[in-house]
Amino acid sequence: MNIWKILRTIVLAVVGLLVLAVLGLAGILGFDTLFPGERVADLTNVTYPGPDGSTLQAYLVEPEGPGPHPAVLMVHEFYGLRKDVIKKADLLAKEGYVVLAVDAYRGQTTTIIPRAIWLVLTTPQDRVSADI
To answer: How far apart (Å, rounded) are the C-alpha atoms in residues 88 and 62?
Structure first.
């Protein structure tokens, strides 16, 4: 009889910890969604029409001096278009490349891995391909 009380206590503790973990993760994701830190609109300098009629954003940088210059189409990693991607585009431009860094998440960005995974899983890949 004592063993059943112990097992019940352990099961309730594990369930309680799982509920707390899920609620904590949901809170972090919600906070990051509402207050992302960087706004993609502040990082981009060009727009272009999307296949569905929407206006898409990107960052375009060209090297100094006369061309022609080779071009690079830069797609961000799973965090979204952020300052570190812009810095990489600028470095490539200093090496002589025209760089267009596109925003595959259409304005969404994050700094935390769980939300980055969420963005990858919920962003339709056919839409990303069509946008690019």
So the answer is: 13
